[in-house]
Amino acid sequence: MDLSERQLQILQAIITDYVENAEPVGSRSIAKKYDLGVSPATIRNEMSDLEEMGYLTHPHTSAGRVPSDKAYRLYVNDLMKKKNLSAKDKRMINDRLSASRDEFDRTIRHAAELLSEITHLASFAMTPATNEETISFIRLLPVDERTLILMIVSEGGQVTNTTLRLTVPYTQEALDLLSKNMTVSYKGRTLDDVLKGEIIHDVGSDIEALSALRGSVMPSFIRTLEDMLNVNLYMEGMTNIFNLPEYTSIDRARDFMELFARKDWFTQKMLARDDGVVVTIGEENDTMKDCTLITATYHVDGKLVGKIGVIGPTRMKYDEITSIMEYLTNNLSESFRLPGSTGDGNAGDKEQKK
Amino acid sequence: MDLSERQLQILQAIITDYVENAEPVGSRSIAKKYDLGVSPATIRNEMSDLEEMGYLTHPHTSAGRVPSDKAYRLYVNDLMKKKNLSAKDKRMINDRLSASRDEFDRTIRHAAELLSEITHLASFAMTPATNEETISFIRLLPVDERTLILMIVSEGGQVTNTTLRLTVPYTQEALDLLSKNMTVSYKGRTLDDVLKGEIIHDVGSDIEALSALRGSVMPSFIRTLEDMLNVNLYMEGMTNIFNLPEYTSIDRARDFMELFARKDWFTQKMLARDDGVVVTIGEENDTMKDCTLITATYHVDGKLVGKIGVIGPTRMKYDEITSIMEYLTNNLSESFRLPGSTGDGNAGDKEQKK
DNA sequence: ATTAGCACTCTCGTTTGATGAGTGCTAACA
DNA sequence: TGTTAGCACTCATCAAACGAGAGTGCTAAT
Questions:
Q1: A340 at interface of B, judged by CB pairs closer than 8 A
Q2: Can you say whether the dihedral through the CA atoms of A256, A258, A263, A265 is positive or negative?
């Protein structure tokens, strides 16, 4: 059942060629371009076998062969070699990422922009996954007599806030007190906990003004917590995919766009607790069966985990892209390490494949 | 030079028909569908005149006529009548908007979603324009020994924050002191002022720890201020345009998408200080010469001004869409009025056309 | 001023045929 | 027994040809 050396060579050649040219590849062109020392006829026979085993497909009777998801999987797992980044790409990553090293969100957004620029694919990036994040403190800040800001900060430093407008004025005292009470009640609890559990009802309901304020604030508090789970997803370069031959059909392009607009789907994808570069090809994916999703993890002080990824057709340069993403995430993790610390808590160059 | 009554009727008929069917409209179909009491031949003559005057165009010799930008302009200014919203649309707006009446940003985002759902076009919405907004206070909040949150709040209640990571630890005292000093220095000044003016250098540079902290914080402060100008732009429903016949060509679709991705362009557009519903048709627009942009203004306590808009091909149902937007913005302004106040500071149903 | 009539133009969908790439099979070959 | 040459066959793609239909523009009659 294992593939012969020659079959592997042929498969590799077909993948390389197809990834390059986006057109079904025939036996003759393989024989000419890649020096396998056999005739087209032999290659045809092998291709026929490969097709039977599910590595190749046939768009129609007399077209060349196209690699299947299974072929790409084999390629990613066993065949492909790590690529060295071009000097230009390396420079780009080093320069552009270091420019704003001290700011979290901005850096992540830049990383996504960078990634889509280099790979010419659509990319996205997520600040540290937060459903297990714990709440650090809650603040209510005054704007005017009826308007206030609700601010939630997690231990990891993630911030979310909403502006609320109340129907009745509030007092500064009530605000301070409620801030304090809420912080005491929720500090150290995870977002999941708070969202799934019941609302704590005894948050200082003894004072009247406070209880009224509390009633106005709590619904927003819950909604804002929900926001924390998906608000920090940046998406970039979606128009890149228009340049790919697989999306010249308007229907395909529309499908892609509609999926890309579904932030929640990506958030879902991102919550998986894996490490390193992960490639999910075509059918392995539930939705978007003709796309490949590649994600990579970066680390903050070796602890917290955020993700960055690209999405495109299954036909993509797996070797280059995974190498780029590895380099990029290592670079990110490096930036986010405490200056003093030496521990490399998983920020290294391990790579895990599905 | 004025158009005759009959010419106006014909022009109106052509516009109505073309907006509906997206196909060049011929003399015969006009004569049949709209009861003008004249023969196709007469209509042909009039159409020829209208074309000479620049109200109609000819895709090619033997196709029907298509309205020009000039025709739409005439239609919008003089011909179209206000439309009554369907009960369904009204209900949708009332229901969906009131659900989150107390939260600013969320409401605006919902309004954009709603608008694109009802109009089947791409929409966007902007929270109050802020380059003339004044700073209310600045806070620095601790996360861990090297991480802190920088938060800027404007008088109007707009909030922006960034998480900073410093290379050296800071003290709580320094943080509090710097918060206070910065607030004192910048309170009441407009964003424009601060961004254009020089940085105030004498913010308590007498204490050493403080001055170090200040050095780390100030660059981010400036960048964060810049963020305040354009961060709150929501865009929705861009995939709607794929369903329109003018965007079945992949090139057109790409152009549209690329423009739509340029947030800065929209922000620019939105800063115009106009009121009510404003329609900008085709060439009147500098970029995107084949699109129409309709914006509408909403009010907060009759003072502050935010905008909401749709964008689509010049062929659109101007009467319906402007009516919807008027209704929607009135509704928004209503929600954002102080419960007690009666003054209607411009929140009424005035409408201004270009 | 309006209208009927008619020739003319141009697009669009369909058909047809040629072309070329590529396969699959068979028989010859090393 | 694995490899190769040869050849018939299959499809997709492209271009040319064609007819139908929609619509105009002009002229002459009303």
A1: no
A2: negative
